[in-house]
């Protein structure tokens, strides 16, 4: 997905949310704010975007989103459990109807056999509704490519929760 495609996906999401009266928040680690940036690059996004949490460190995940330190110690920052806790924390700490959380290893270093470079966990949630998890193994395709691809997946998950195009 190109930068243009990312912008188009963000525009579709904003349109869907406006039509349905939904608001969005993000909880981003490895994407460092790319998702909320794609949304807020579009004029009028303030009607939909509530806030974005950039929780790159474990301390930030705990302090801003309430992710339990014990959960981080047991499962690690890059895990289904952490992504899910980040999404729930984003719901708790925002006014948003829809949230997405992203945590992964963009590289070039930091990977292991168990958690290789390119592994990203996503969780999305709708207030009072559906919960989604997705694991993606993009591979060692380069830091920028992993982050960009992860942002695209996150926007698609939000679109799914918003009810399609």
UniProtKB/TrEMBL annotation:
Pfam families assigned: CinA
Domain annotation CinA C-terminal: ranges: 10-160
InterPro entries named in the record: CinA-like_C (IPR036653), CinA_C (IPR008136)
Transmembrane portions of the chain: none
Domain of life: Bacteria
Record's protein name: C-terminal domain of CinA type S
Organism: Blastochloris viridis
